[in-house]
Predict the structure.
Amino acid sequence: MDFTLDEKTNAHILKLRHFIKKELQPLEEEVEAKGILDSSLAAEILEKSRALGFYGMNIPVEHGGGGFNSVQMVYLEQEMGQTTDPLVRRAFGNVYEVLLACNEAQRQQWLIPCVRGERTCSIAMTEPEAGSDSAGITATAKPDGHGWVLNAHKCPVGDGMFSDFYVVSARSENVEGSRGISLFLVDRSMTGVEIVRNMPMMGLRGSTHVEIKFDNVKLGPENLLGERGKGLSLLLSTIGRIRLFHIGARAVGMGRKVLQLMTERANQRQQFGKPIGEFQMIQQMLADSLIELNCAHLLVLDAASEIDRGLDPREKVSMVKINSAETLGKIADRAVQVFGAMGYCKDLPFERIYRDCRVLRIYDGTSEIHRMVVSRGLMKKGVENIIGNYLAN
Ligand SMILES: Cc1cc2nc3c(=O)[nH]c(=O)nc-3n(C[C@H](O)[C@H](O)[C@H](O)COP(=O)(O)OP(=O)(O)OC[C@H]3O[C@@H](n4cnc5c(N)ncnc54)[C@H](O)[C@@H]3O)c2cc1C
């Protein structure tokens, strides 16, 4: 496989790298210390990002997006991974691909403003009693003759405080399991939508994760996204690319940054009269990190190229989700070790990265759930049909 990029994409990646270094990375420590990104700064970085063409890069050109394919997006997202989640969200938004299921009227109201960076949205699936079991929700959308009446309790909803609207899953049909669930576009300003609280997390300071109640929210037929009763499969069919980009590629990007800093430290830090990089146990940490990171890098590109070739690499997407999350976790842990006391100290970013990356094994499907997907796929399809897709027929 050839993952070489064309000149135009290459130039865009370098421009993005420069933007992140110049505009976002200098804000990281301030956001961490304050727990919030100043709203005027947020507006400023959004404006600059839009002007440079960094908004909605994953969305097809006909909807006003960048139109980058999956392999190109992986490289772009690896750059985004080199800064923090709250800054990525403010600069590049949450343009979820499930919004591509909008019909023409919905496109103007919900999708296009999102692609333009004028509005932003969150996905509200998880409930206090339904996390991994996303079909086990108790949220209901009852037909009322005209549209629907939504009752739901969702948490945590990532970026929920900042979002203008939510894509909410609710049971609309009298059928058990995933087939009775639909998705609804719900504006935050609608009567009955209440953000109950922000839920403080271990890391990701500067992002919000909220608990939201939807109490008898009256929705019209125009609020239904996609087909009735097919919401969960719609969401799951679009979430693969998002998992590859937001978790797979970003984790590799952050891993690259951390490993580079570890390597510089191993060269510079002297103990017992020599650089610590000359000690074999430090060398092992560096070597293992590079091996695992390169494997993670290739795995995410491999899955992305299958998507671009029109295949459905769901096991590979799950493998990426598990592997990138766990690889970054191991590298962040080794970075703390290589930096010693300074690795544990808040003067340097490693303790923050160590906390921030822990969530990658939990959200967007836990590592356990993704291992289930991988092993079920393996037992059903066999090894060759998952990793042997390269032979010409
Ligand atoms: C920071 C953050 C942001 C989030 N943002 C959003 C968001 O924007 N929108 C949204 O809808 N949700 C969001 N979530 C929720 C997230 O998707 C869920 O946390 C995740 O799906 C796991 O659900 P749970 O936390 O309820 O864990 P549970 O499902 O209760 O699982 C608990 C443990 O049991 C294990 N487990 C469960 N079932 C099985 C099984 N069948 N086999 C083996 N092990 C199993 C899990 O792997 C886990 O280790 C967010 C969570 C966090 C932490």
About this structure: Residues 122-126, 131-132, 156-158, 201, 204, 209, 359, 362-363, 365-366, 368-369, 372 surround flavin-adenine dinucleotide (CB under 6 Å). The first helix runs from residue 7 to 24. Strands lie at 121-124, 140-143, 148-158, 165-171, 181-187, 193-198, 209-219, 224-225, 270-271, 274-275.
